[in-house]
Amino acid sequence: MDRSQASAQLIVGGRPFIIFGGELGNSAAGTAAQADDILPRVARAHINTVLMPVAWEQIEPVEGKFDFTILDHWIEQARAQHLHLVLLWFGSWKNAFSSYTPDWVKKNPKRFGRAIAPDGQPLEILSTLSKENLDADARAFQALMRHVKEFDMQQQTVLMVQVENEAGILGSGRDHSAEADRLFNAPVPESLMQYLHAHRDWFSPELSRVWNGNGRGWRDVFGESAPEVFMAWNYARYIGQVAEAGKSEYPLPMYVNAQLPSPFERAGEYPSGGPHPYYLEVYRAAAPALDFFSPDIYWPNFEYWVQRYNEHGNAVFVPEARLEAGPFNAFYTYGEARAFGFSPFAVDSISDVETKAEEGKNPLAQSYSVLQQLEDILPQAQRESRTRGLVLHVSSPRATQTVSLGGYLFTATLARSWPARNLLQDDGAMIVVQTGSDEFLIGGAALTITVSKDIDAGDGIAGIASVEEGSRVRGEWETERRLNGDQNNQGRDVSLPAHGFKLLRVRLYTIPKR
Question: Backbone dihedral region of 164: left (phi > 0), alpha (psi from -120 to 50 degrees) or beta?
């Protein structure tokens, strides 16, 4: 990872790499035959990186005996399709529960301790406080990373690894085992207190609200949020040690993902102790081996959650998002959040008909096709703050949105018919990349964009010099048609098509005010 510039970037083969990703469904990577079926379809959808589960129960069916046969086939098939992979380690936890652990772990709760509910009953969740749990998971993950290094280091098919999946405890908000109770009633560890005192300026509003730096016990220091912060500390310490064990073999970038709360949910209704934006400073303190933290976004307020993770140098990567909204949210993610990657969930569900037919049948393939035309210039443009993006939905409280770039304001509204003014599409999005002093590439769909002079850039009136629809081929612009007259409202606006995604080259000009 490179964090030396305005946007953190993934470096592959010495160069920045943009992930146009897609995550597989949970049960889509369990056999070699599935790779043969899924990966060719995914590759035809303009996806360049597949996020795939690797299950602990599958690679270590017998303790100490590992089988990587299926994973190896997936890697080989990915190479054949010119795809990269991100491995999702379904180890101790997946969506809070421990359903991907091997039978020899599940059947021995005395050795592999469980988290305990308030009524004393064991949960189907491995305890963060069990050394046996941690040691077994870390050994398996270490073996996985050792094998990936031996099998793939030269080709670099595997780019990154997600360590566990949507960790956190469901139910009461914290583990109620005897050991957890003892630690919860003890003072907050001094190492955590020192870190938080030193990083007070990085606190989220939620942490600032409850923080009492003069306290000693968990409730004294963190108030009503003490159970969740306590679990965040323990999950982070555990996951951080698993990541550290894997990196000792092969130090690929490693991250964790979070299941986000829906409105009004409390800790325990969503996985308490996961890497939520509220308490990421606890994760940074406890798990320095993790490179960044990522949100799985299924809620409508997509931009809000991306912004919550786009702070303090955290690399922006969205590993899971709604497939239906993905074609639009991708433009915001790369343009506004300056992310190095985006990945809708369940891309294995894209049908063969959609990928084999002419481009335009599958919205995600269309949007990635447009965005990939920018991949050679996008990393540098992101670093130099020459990109903006937005997404609009019919349900959005704002009918218009405006972004500023290069001395101009770009104001977007959802496309409407003329003269009836009926809405043509429920969603619209764009990315704007500045390529010259008055030249911009605009990609997206279903928006009408007006341009005006940004008053912060000086006086003047902005005008549209030209709009061209086309594509970038081997880094060079090729015009397919010049848009004028009805297609740009007699020079008054820029229109992205109501159905389908396009790339436009727009030249602007400024004249002085009279």
Answer: left
C-alpha span between 48 and 381 (Å, rounded): 20
Sign, Cα dihedral of 476, 481, 486, 487: negative
The Cα diameter of the chain in Å comes to 83
d(CA 298, CA 177): 32
Whether the Cβ atoms of residue 437 and residue 495 lie closer than 8 Å to each other: no
pLDDT single digits (tens) 371-392: 999 999 999 999 999 999 999 9
How far is residue 383's CA from residue 366's CA, in Å, rounded to a whole number? 25
Cis peptide before 122 (omega within 30 of 0): no
SS3 at position 146: helix
Reported pTM: 0.95
Calculate the dihedral angle through the C-alpha atoms of 320, 321, 324, 330, rounding to the nearest 10 degrees: -100
Instruction: Please list the alpha-helical segments (H only) found in 211-278.
Output: 218-222, 226-247
Bigger pLDDT: 514 or 199?
199
- Partnered with residue 476 across adjacent β-strands are 473
User: Which has the closest alpha carbon to 52: 94, 89, 75, 24?
Assistant: 24
